[in-house]
Amino acid sequence: MLKDITIGQYFPLNSVIHRLDPRVKLLYTFVFIIMIVVANNFVSMLFCVICALSVTLISKIPVKTVVKGLKPILFIIIITSLLQIIYVKTGVPLVSFWKIKITSGGLLEALFMTMRITFLIVMSTMLTYTTSPTSMTNGLDRTFAPLSRLGIDFNIITMIMTIALRFIPTLIDEVDKIISAQKSRGANFESGSIFKRAKMLIPLFVPLLFNATRRAYELAYAMTCRCYNGGKGKTTMNALKFRAGDWTASFLTVAFVAGVIFLNINFGEYNAQFTFNTAV
Amino acid sequence: MALLQTENLSYIYGEGTPFCVTALDKVNIEIEKGEIVAVIGHTGSGKSTLMQLLNGLLKSTAGRVLIDGEDIRSSKAKTLETRFRVGLCFQYPEYQLFENTVYEDIAFGPKNMGLSEEEVDKRVRVAAKYVGIPEYAFKTHPFDLSGGEKRRVAIAGVISMEPEILILDEPTSGLDPRGREQILELIKNYRDRTQKSVVVVSHSMNDVAKIASRVIVMYDSKVLMTGSVQEIFDQSEKLSEIGLSVPQITEVFAKLHAKGLPVSEKIYTTEQAFLEIKRVLKGGGVNA
Ligand SMILES: Nc1ncnc2c1ncn2[C@@H]1O[C@H](COP(=O)(O)OP(=O)(O)O)[C@@H](O)[C@H]1O
Ligand SMILES: [Mg+2]
C-alpha cells in the first residue's frame, strides 16, 4: 500500500535521460509544465502527451511504475473531473437529472483537465525517477547559484530539499515497519468505524514522529561532526558539464515549445461545440 | 505434526521492479511445542522476512505456512487468529512504543484481543514480571526509560498476548552485556514456565549456545542446516565458510584440545567450560 508512493523516488537505470545534466532536466521539466498549462486545444495537448510518453519510453522506467506513481493523485483527478462535468454547460446537453446537466462540453473539459494533470505529474515524477538526489542538489545548487548575489544562501535551501527527498523512502519504510509491529500486537488498521480508525493513527504517528525527531538530531550531529557549516563555497566532486545529449535535449525542447505554440495558434482555443461536432 | 511449519516458502520483495530481491527461497522449517529454536545467519539472509511470514504479516510469493496443519491464509479469521498465536517482536521494538505509560503499552495487545479488563490486567502483570519490570514503574512514560528497559517493555507487550509461539527478532542486538543477559534469561524463563515455543533470531553464537534447543542456519535466502546446538557447532568449518563462527569459548577449547590438553572440544557455554576445567583439574581425561 505505502510502497505505491513513488513520488520523490529515484529509479537507478542507465538511460539517456538519466545521464542528462540535472540542470537541463530541471529547467526543461519546468518548461514542459508551463507548456502543458499553455496548451489550449486538444491537438496541442495531444502533442504534449506524445512528448511526455516518448520521454517516459526513453527513460526505460517501466510504464507500470509510472502508472502506480499516479495513484496518490487519482483523488484530485476525480474531483476535478466531477467539477468540470457538473459546472461546464457548453456543448450539446447529453443527460440531465435532478439539478445536474451533463453536456458534451463538460465531458471534454474533464478529459482535457485529466490529461493536463496526469502528464504534469508524469513529467515531474520523471525528473525524480531519473535524477539521483546528489545530482539533483548539484543541479539545484547551480541553477540558483546566481541568487547568492542577492544575499540568499541557496546552499542551505537545496540541502534541506535534498534531505527531505532523501528521507521520503526512509519514512515510508518506517511507517511500514511500525504498522507491521502494531499489527503483530493485534492492531487493526483496515476496518472498523471512522472513529476507531482515527484512534489507530496514534500507535502509528507517535512512534513515527518520535523516531523522525531522533533521526533529525542524529543527522544534524553527524553533519556537524563532519564540519558542515552551511555549505558556503562548497565545491563538488563531479563538476557538471554540458554534453552532446544535453544539446540534443535543448534542441528538442525548443522544438517542443515551438510546436505547442504553433498548434495553439493554428487550431485556436478549443471550442467544445466544434470539437464535439468534428468528433462525431 | 509440527505446531508451526512451512512448505516451500518463498518471498520476493518488489516483484516486477528493478529492485526485486528474493529474500526467501523454498524454505521448509518446523517449530515444535516447547522448544527454543535459534535462527542464525548473516545480515540479509532472510531471517526477518521468514519471521514476518510466520505470523502472517507478509503474504508469501509461493509456498504456505501451516499452524496445526492448517494454512494460516485459509481465511481472514485464521490469519488474525495466527497473529495472536504467533507473537512477533520486531528488531528494535523499543521504537514502536507509543502509549503514555508502560502499563498502557503492555496492555495494547491484550486489549486488541478483546479480553476483559481483569484478564488484561492479569496479563500485563504477568508479562511485566517475566521481563523484570517492577510494578512501581507501570506509570512511567516509556520514553523516559533506558534503551534496555524500553526493549523489555516492548517484549512484554508481545508476551502479554501469551502467544503459543513467541518470535523475537534479534532481541539482544545493540544492548550491553547485562541487558543481553537479562533478555536471554527471560526467554528461558518464559519457555520453562509456560512450556510454549520460542523462536529467537540472533547474530550471537554465544547467545545461541546458551539458550537454544535447536538451531536453524540460514544462508542466501535458504535454510542451510538445522540441528541441535552440538550438531551445528560441530561443523565449524561449514559455518566459517558462510561467515559465521562458533562461540568464542568453543574456539578456545578447540585450540586447547589441539595443543594436546586433555579437554573436550565440545564446549559451547562458559558453564560447560567451568565444569570441564573442574573435571580436568580433578584428573580426568577426554571423554568424548
Ligand atoms: N522492505 C524491504 N524491501 C525490499 N527488500 C527488502 C526489504 N526487507 C528486506 N529486504 C531484502 O530482503 C533480504 C532479506 O532481508 P531480511 O529478511 O531483513 O534479512 P535478515 O533479517 O536476515 O538480515 C535482504 O537482501 C534485504 O535487502
Ligand atoms: Mg533482520
Structural account:
The complex is a heterodimer of chains A (280) and B (288). Helix content of chain A is 69%, strand content 3%. With 280 residues, chain A is mainly alpha-helical. Chain A has two domains: 186 residues, no CATH class; 77 residues, no CATH class. In chain A, strands 1-2 form a two-stranded antiparallel sheet. Chain B has a domain of 36 residues. The mean pLDDT of chain B is 91. In chain B, α3 crosses α4 and α4 crosses α5. A six-stranded mixed sheet of chain B has the order 7-8-9-4-10-11, with helices on both faces. In chain B, strands 1, 2, 3, 5 and 6 form a five-stranded antiparallel sheet that branches. In chain B, 43% of the residues are buried. The two termini of chain B are 34 Å apart. The radius of gyration of chain B is 20 Å and the shape is globular. Bound molecules: adenosine-5'-diphosphate and magnesium ion (MG). The site of adenosine-5'-diphosphate (ADP) has 12 residues of chain B, from β2 and α1.
